Amino acid sequence: MIDLYFRKPLLWDYLLATLLCIIIFVINNIGWIFIPVNQNIWSMASDLSTTSLTLAGFIITLLTILITFKSGYRIKKGSKVEDETVFELFFTTNLYFETVKHLKNCIKSLVFISVLGYSLKLFLNDCAHKYIYFFNIFGLIVVILTLLRSLMILTKIIDLQKLE
């Protein structure tokens, strides 16, 4: 299941967020829940956008550290696999490049949510609180899933270091 998710994580994140927004939209139209009309919705959009940028910064830091370690590591000619640490071997496999790709996608996703949130606040008027409400739900789901994906990757990297 996790392998299926990691093949196209952005697709799954945005699909799940969209599905939850549609479900809440339908429940709202039925009348089971009501979208609040207050300033907290606008404030949450700002908080979500700011949090997205902050998390993107942390992931950029993690990615920078990985790239720095990779650039500091060179495979010695004639060295045996047994002489290398598990973490050093990680840099020579496709897993390293997959990890970098996933972390870059996390950053792109978080920056997209941030830009979308600030743009909605900038261009929508007070009557458009319904759109901001659904952005908050959508953005929160995407941020949570992106953060969980980053933590899963980080946990796997730490597990590699434990094997040494």
Could you characterize the architecture of this molecule?
The protein has one domain. The chain contains 6 helices and no strands.
* Oligomeric state of this protein: single chain
Write the H/E string, N to C. Answer: HHHHHH
Radius of gyration: 20 Å
The profile of the biggest β sheet is:
none
Helix/strand class: mainly alpha
SS element count, helices: 6
Instruction: Report the portion of residues in β strands.
Output: under 5%
What is the average per-residue confidence, as pLDDT, rounded to a whole number? 87
Query: How many E-type strands?
Result: 0
Shape: elongated
| Unreliable residue runs | none
N- to C-terminal distance: 28 Å
The helix content is over 70%
Question: What count of structural domains?
Answer: 1
Write the layout of secondary structure elements.
Elements (H helix, E strand, L loop, with lengths): L1 H6 L1 H22 L8 H34 L13 H5 L3 H30 L5 H34 L2
Characteristics:
164 residues; mainly alpha; 6 helices; elongated
